Amino acid sequence: MSGGSDGDSTLSRAAEEAEELHRIRDTYFPANPEDKTSRIQAGADHALSLLDSIPPEERRSPAQRAKYEYLRGKVLEAFNEYKKEAEDHLSKAVKLNPSLGDAWLCLGHSIWKKGDLASAKNCFLLALSKGPNKKILCYLSMLERKLAQGTENQAQYVEESIQHAKEAITLDVKDGYSWYNLGNAYLTSFFVNGSWEHNKLLHSVKAYQNAEKDPDMNSNPDLYFNCAIANKYLENYERALTGFEAAALKDPGLNSGEEVQQIVTLLDKIDNSIKGQSRGKRLKTLAASLAEAVVDSSHKKAI
């Protein structure tokens, strides 16, 4: 009896470590991306060794085998690149126990990485059929934006993306990642619809602002970059500039410098047209100083 209990305890510890690996992947954005990779690798090695320590006789039942395969696949799926081994383990898990919603989610994400978007969506929908889940809804929303690219019915896909993003928020109104995803959906809708609806940008910025309230999102450079893009098109240049600076400090690899330079050029034209009005001069000065900061940040990254 004690052996089985020990095996269950080890599975529980491995499950916690697998979940932590996914949290690191989704919310940890160090200045040096290699720090993230090495942290995930170390965590994965430890979690896999835990699973290896479970004797074969303690993972013989279909339920035990399903959980073992699921956790092994989930650990391997935490890496950004596609791993066939992860897909194989997750496929075995859902065959042994089709009710494992998170296994379907991880399998869908793994399949997405190799470019099979239709099969990935099918996995997400199967995961969602096991019960409401904000993470599944966010992934489904993101995938629908990806599916929209290069299709004739882009607007329909993006509208579905917005609806699934909203559903995720109803499950946890304080979850920053769900708000960030909704902001991305509205920003995509602004560009896709062609009419460049002002309200889409306003909704986008509001969603990003709600995302910023979640401490887990504070280190996400894409949040600040995308919000800055929305503010740029709203002609909120001061907010856009500070957003691009924040994004550059968190990830110098983003093209924040190009965006800032575009605003510098635009404000230079505005400054010339309004002949030295104080707001135009102040923004131009701010833009110039931020351009230097962004370039300096990128230079440090290269070093």
UniProtKB/TrEMBL annotation:
Gene3D superfamilies: Tetratricopeptide repeat domain. Residues 14-26 have a biased composition (Basic and acidic residues). It comes from the Eukaryota. Residues 1-42 are annotated as: Disordered. InterPro entries: TPR-like_helical_dom_sf, TPR_rpt. PANTHER family: OS01G0506200 PROTEIN (PTHR26312:SF194), TETRATRICOPEPTIDE REPEAT PROTEIN 5 (PTHR26312). This is Uncharacterized protein. It comes from Acorus calamus.
